[in-house]
Amino acid sequence: MGTTGIAWSILAAVTATCLVVLVRTRWLQSRTLAKCVALSVLLHGALAVVCAFVGGWAPASWGRNEEGRMSIVVAVAEEPLDAPAVDSSSPHVEPAADQHASAASAAVPDVPAIPLLPAQGEAAVAPVDHVPLLDVAVESQIAPSSPAASAEDGADGEVRPDAPTHRVPDTYADRVGARRATAAAARGGSEATERAVQSALAWLAAAQAADGRWNAAEHGAGVERAVQGNHRHGAGARSDHGVTGLALLAFLGAGNTHRDGPHAAVVERGMRFLVERQRADGSLAGDAEFFAALYCHGMATIAVAECLALTGDDALRQPLARAVARTLAMQHPHTGGWRYAAGDRGDTSQCGWQVMVLASARNAGMTGFDVAESRARGFLQSVSSGAAGGLAAYRRGERPTMAMTAEALYCRLLLGMPAGMPAATEALGMIAASPPAATNYNAYTWYYATLASFHAGGPHWEQWNRQLQSALLPLQRRERGPLEGSWDPDPVWGGHGGRVYSTALSAMTLEVYYRHLPMHQREQRMAAVPPSSP
Fold first, then answer.
1. CA angle 200–202–203, rounded 5-degree value
2. Could you tell me which residues come within 8 angstroms of residue 223 by beta carbon, excluding any fewer than 6 positions away?
3. N- to C-terminal Cα separation, the chain
């Protein structure tokens, strides 16, 4: 019998004994109603004390300030009770025409709804020579899907990885060879930005550990700075899987995979590290602390998805399917948000990474999460404000910020909002009001603001790009030595993520010109039909 069962048994025995004593002594025969009320109050007080000792006095996902020890982490890390493992109501093998998902119940009624468009196409690319990624030891625990099996998957409500197509989605097609240089020149890049990227990749390659990971603590992660007044108890010191995912995304963004590119061996070791250590529940968070775990899972999952989309390597297909299923299980079933634990109502920062998980998985050929995307749209509506609904807060009821507005805009573009909508214009106005400068370095905010501005396009992007390059390029370490090519941890979130985090995010920011096809230039956008009104 577990701790909970023992506690309930003791409480029941004590209660029964007390009731028998009270009845036999005829104590209840006078002023019966008042005494019954008193007994009820005492009984419920005892129940509350027992529950507090069993479940913890202050679970970390309660309240607005994340304080205290995280002894509840083990209880919420495995099978969640508040959200299904997968959205079983979502179609898994049907074409895009069957994408009429219901909206999240938490949508804010006075924020304008946003029309969406169907999914994008893909462009074929020539095959490349294969550099083995996952050897027999890994494949023995991960059975690649076959076309025959794929036709039967999805009937039981599980996320199904589709059959390999060996085609690279249009959105990634500019990363390789001459197309990269052409795209960079056409969209605002320069020789200086590309030199900075290559120098950053060289530093990241040198910083990789022998087992394929990037050691977060070794490069300055886990320094507590009580950002925005919240103490996160040094979260980030064990975020190896998260910073490894970010580092891999920087290499993948410049056209390197485990099959091709000057850094193929680096990508191979990093991808092997992530996949071999995936947990049974699909999590790629590794040993990350409570506040960092879902962030790490999202970053690592996006890296696996992009590598699969670029190469079509079947050995990555099942690990990605399990990781996406984990993301779906962590989404709140009603608010549509993600936070630290399953059942948390959600915040915009976590939402951004998990929406990118779903978008990257779509690019890798997966289906089966239309309902999750519809719920995410509802969550973004719930944190929105402004005349056009373009501003966004960290959580519902809080004031909008530039960082969350930029992240929410990028998510909405990924989920199909046309770039010319008034909500996008309003968001871009807030971003423009806080231009990047060397004195306010924030790798996280600049990354999302750059993504949002680039994909929205127009004069705002041109202005932001000029300001970004003027601020970000001089901050890169250029002196000869072990730090050459890296960026120092920024004064905001850099303490939690360390030098690998700041360097990888800054490199991806400067890869924006070719990492993805600009969404405002696509004839079709990757998204479903807009959700119906709740």
1. 65
2. 234, 236, 489, 495, 496, 498
3. 44
The 10s digit of each residue's pLDDT in 20-59 is 766 666 666 566 677 777 777 877 777 777 666 555 444 4
- Asked whether 505 and 246 are in contact (CB, 8 A), the reply is yes
Closest residue by Cα to residue 448 from 353, 521, 306:
353
3-state secondary structure 122-190: EECCCCCCCCCCCCHHHHCCCCCCCHHHHCCCCCCCCCEECCCCCCEEHHHHHHCHHHHHHHHHHCCCC
Q: Cα–Cα distance between 162 and 362 in angstroms, integer? A: 10
CB 372 within 8 A of CB 92: no
The candidate with the shortest Cα–Cα distance to 405, out of 448, 344, 356, is 448
Structure tokens at 161: 């990885």
3-state secondary structure of 384: strand
pLDDT in tens, 309-338: 999 999 999 999 999 999 999 999 999 999
pLDDT at 75 over 80: no
Query: Taking Cα atoms as reference points, which of 334, 258, 340 lies closest to residue 84?
Result: 334
Task: Give me the phi and psi of 461, to 5 degrees please.
Answer: -65, -45
Rounded to whole angstroms, how far apart are CA atoms 105 and 301?
27
Contacts of 459 (CB under 8 A, 6+ apart): none
Angle at the Cα of 343 from the Cα atoms of 338 and 346, rounded to 5 degrees = 30
Cα dihedral 392, 394, 399, 401 in deg (nearest 10): -60
- 470, 192 in Cβ contact below 8 A? no
More confident residue, 177 or 358: 358
Q: How far apart are alpha carbons 339 and 383 in whole angstroms?
A: 14
Q: Which of 515, 518, 526, 517 is nearest to 249 (CA)?
A: 515
Is residue 127 scored above 70 in pLDDT? Answer: no
The answer to whether the beta carbons of residues 227 and 484 sit under 8 Å apart is no
Give CA–CA dist 427/386, Å, rounded.
9
User: What's this model's pTM, rounded to 2 decimal places?
Assistant: 0.70
**Over 80: is that where the pLDDT of 119 sits?**
no
DSSP state of 349: H
